[in-house]
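Structure ticket #2291
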Amino acid sequence: MGKPVEFWFEFASTYSYLSAARVEAACAAAGVELRWRSFLLGPVFAAQGMRDSPFNIYPIKGAYMWTDMTRCCADLDLPFAKPSSFPRGSLLAARIAASHADALWIGAFVRAVYHANFADDRDIADDAVVTAILNEIGQDAGFVIALATTDTGKAQLRSNTEAALAKGLFGAPSFVVGDTYFWGNDRMDQAIRHAQDS
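Resolution: structure written out below.
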């Protein structure tokens, strides 16, 4: 087995939805270990002088992205509905994904949160929605949330975000294999092949 693929994602990221839907199965098929790495794009964008998503800062780019997402989701047979609010906060979900990154159910959780946001237009910033998602995938929501919101759990997400900045990541989804990184949903397969060859 080659080097692991680190999948760096943010729940507000549109293109991360496309990758999150496929990355676990793709890595398993390739015989490559997958590591889930939740982080926050806000501090990453702030380091680049931005206070909002570039898709909101540049309306023409944003309009293209929504059209492109519709096409990409159709190609991948993924349900898609433009969220009524963008970008949505996802702090609790991100903390859960960071603090429970090694849990066997984490892939199901990540996919369910993305589906809630980009297919069902549910408000993933609402703790009640996150609680419902955990229940829907058969987890003890109270236990999972309690661990994710301890000082240690909160620190894990901060650490991930600081690590993303230190690695020079500037957007999501990103894939890191050793010291090499790949940015964008369209680079996922390339990252996995690189991991196989490493």
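Closing remark: The chain has eleven helices and four strands.
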